[in-house]
Request: fold
Amino acid sequence: MKNKKLPTIKEIAKQLNISVSTVSRALHDHPSIGLRTKSRVQELAKELGYEPNQTAIFFKQRRTFTIGVVLPYLIEDFFAGAISGIEEVVNASKYNVLIGQSNDDVEREKAIITAMKNQRVDGIIVSLSKHTKNLDHFTALERYDLPVVFFDRVPASNTYNKVAFDMPHGTHQAISFLMEKGHRRIGIINGPKEMKSSKERTDTYMQVLQKKRLKIDLSLVAYCDLTKEGTSLAMETLLALKHPPTAILAINDYVALDAIQYAKSKNLINNKDIFFVSYANLPISKYLENPPMASIEQYPKKQGEKAAEILLSMITHEGPDPLEPQNILIPGELVVHIR
Amino acid sequence: MKNKKLPTIKEIAKQLNISVSTVSRALHDHPSIGLRTKSRVQELAKELGYEPNQTAIFFKQRRTFTIGVVLPYLIEDFFAGAISGIEEVVNASKYNVLIGQSNDDVEREKAIITAMKNQRVDGIIVSLSKHTKNLDHFTALERYDLPVVFFDRVPASNTYNKVAFDMPHGTHQAISFLMEKGHRRIGIINGPKEMKSSKERTDTYMQVLQKKRLKIDLSLVAYCDLTKEGTSLAMETLLALKHPPTAILAINDYVALDAIQYAKSKNLINNKDIFFVSYANLPISKYLENPPMASIEQYPKKQGEKAAEILLSMITHEGPDPLEPQNILIPGELVVHIR
DNA sequence: CTGTTAGCGCATTCAT
DNA sequence: ATGAATGCGCTAACAG
Reply:
């Protein structure tokens, strides 16, 4: 079934009684080919519907013009947006995008990386699974000179190329906003402790409070596994405090929405009895009657674009010395939904 | 930079003083290789960190174990869900997924198809751009024996393989539901007229009304381009009717939400002055205070899975006679949000 | 059980 | 300006 044979340069060469190398050159507009020959070749090629066999070219050139993108869940708006940015940038340079979803499973993440390496993608863009701690499967790629750029969920070490949301900046905005609104007991719902962002958020939180000379109460910092149940547990803990928070900063809009539902089940009205600020600024927020009071736009598309640009520059970069690892922070923007 | 050379079977053969074919066989657990040789080869392979070069294999085998997926927008939950289903199914058979977003642009769609064909993907899964009328760029693929399966936004002709939502069934449910609620003037907001689903929805609508012996008023059927502005225009038309509809069936939840916002701007309260039923059942619906009264779940993941299964069966199928074109309908389910 | 050989389609180096 | 020859890494037909 897959055996119908397509025209090759060899076929064209035969029909024109010239050599394959001439055909190859003619097809590439090589300067040293006679105008006459060139046009004969190109005409016949068109007539036969010749299309170069990319698999042969990939094999020969040792490049596939394909980049791999590994991320937890395509269904999350953030990641879908990031992919769009990536696709746009790499398509402009004739690269294609191979995707793999880790489903937040470390083993799957490893398997995807291996498959992509064997398939000789020219580079990989990764957003880590929420439980990835060990990065061996990425450091192993150095051996193959396979460039990797992380985005959003990035490793802590600065030896890697990475593009991420500027957590200190965004968190600072969020907390300042809440404090201006008069809140003094601000709770936090982080993701899992393994996630770099959890620590960053907490650190910034403490810094801001410190600067305002407020005392820090770490019982206001909760963690969750990003599921609805996990969020409920975190909320339960926070609300059970002797002095529960009057406002909560949640790792993302999904968690905030689950938290809002939980609060509601405890008869706490959102934006009245309790207030939320979260990260992501989901497009659907504008349809919600009762959204988080504010959300920090993280510009997923921009993150994807930037990661893709860095990756392409690494792929293109020829030279003995590797480029310095890049560490790009994308500043967010606080979008206020409820004034 | 991309020149560090990796171990090949040739390298292994040399070190072991045996032939490459023996190595190749040993690596594949070929039965006719001596146990001793086999283990020597496999050990050295592991020691050298040998990994087969897939690009060479693709080239030689004339298969890439890659399938292309072309769809309008990854950012729409429906399509992201479908991809997840596709990925899951094809990964189980060691296939990878190459994606391309058409952005609902026909030219982009064509370009993506061409690129995928040249890259020798083993098959393609497509959801058409909303304006694709001419299918030449798909029929051209027959020449290459490249299997194609359409899903969701499928062509009308039955000569193609396709998996789609069962529009008559779903629409019937929706309209019956609205009629049980007492509605007699039911409006429709379709997508563009080019979309097959627009005609199907309208047809079913007319059939149901006919069966109930209600008179049909085609001014209740509006079309939109799926943008917020287009939706507003459609709403404007419907609400300007001498007898405006009391309920509206909208092509999808996004359009319904925009329509609800428009209605609100005209002081019509959703689920009180006017009612909506739509298609998709977005996961975020459950967070909405004031969602469409009901929405028809279209099981995107299931559609993706089914499309992938069909494609894989076509790829695997060896034989002179091609398989019959499949035409699968996935029944939806009416999910009632407001009782 | 193992080796030899050919060839997939193309770009490229070296001749002429 | 063109051709001949080579090889990328691997599989498989054929030959022992």
Notes: Chain B has a mean pLDDT of 93. Chain B touches chain A through 56 residues (CB under 8 Å). The domain at 64-165+300-327 of chain B is CATH 3.40.50.2300 (Rossmann fold).
